Amino acid sequence: MVFSLDERSNLIKIYDNEMKNINKFCPKKEKHNNRFPYIHDFDYSEISTRLGVILSDDTISTIHVPNLLSKTTAEFDSAYLNEVVYPLP
Q1: Cα distance between residue 60 and residue 31, in whole Å
Q2: Taken in order 14, 33, 88, 73, is the CA torsion positive or negative?
Q3: pLDDT (tens digit, 9 = 90+) per residue, 10-19?
Q4: CA atoms within 13 A on the CB side of 41
Q5: C-alpha span between 66 and 23 (Å, rounded)
Q6: C-beta separation of 21 from 28 below 8 A
Q7: In 3-state terms, what secondary structure has residue 85?
Q8: For residues 46 and 51, what is the distance between their CA atoms, to the nearest angstrom?
Q9: For position 26, what pLDDT does the model report?
Q10: pTM (two decimals)
């Protein structure tokens, strides 16, 4: 998998090895005081298969990538641990 930050649309795009766009991640405004925070940076851990995203509202979101890729948007949003938001110290 290849991850790319699209700064213009504020998305993290996920591509397969043939560079076909297979999914994208955008922070949910419901988890960020009804605002869309800007994505500053991200990192993917192959060991835990989680994507860590640093956001402009001084939070870090962690996303479980296999669930993001295999579930519908409604299923992904309904599970609490698929996206967890932590405040920065």
Answers
A1: 11
A2: negative
A3: 999 999 889 9
A4: 2
A5: 11
A6: no
A7: strand
A8: 9
A9: 87
A10: 0.83
Calpha distance 75→63 (Å, rounded): 14
Residue among 37, 77, 76 at smallest CA distance from 59: 37
SS (H, E, C) the chain: CEEEEECCCCEEEEECCCCCEEEEECCCHHHCCCCCCCEEEEEEECCCCEEEEEECCCEEEEEEHHHHHHCCHHHHHHCHHHEEEEECC
DSSP H or E segment with residue 4: strand 2-6
What tokens were used for 35? 């605002």
37-67: per-residue pLDDT in tens? 999 999 999 999 999 999 999 999 999 999 8
Judge contact between 13 and 54, C-beta under 8 A.
no
State the DSSP H helix or E strand holding residue 15, giving kind and residue range, or none if neither: strand 11-15
Query: Which residues lie across from 58 on neighbouring strands?
Result: none
Residue pair 38/47 in contact by the 8 Å Cβ criterion? no
Task: Please give the structure tokens belonging to residue 86.
Answer: 């932590």
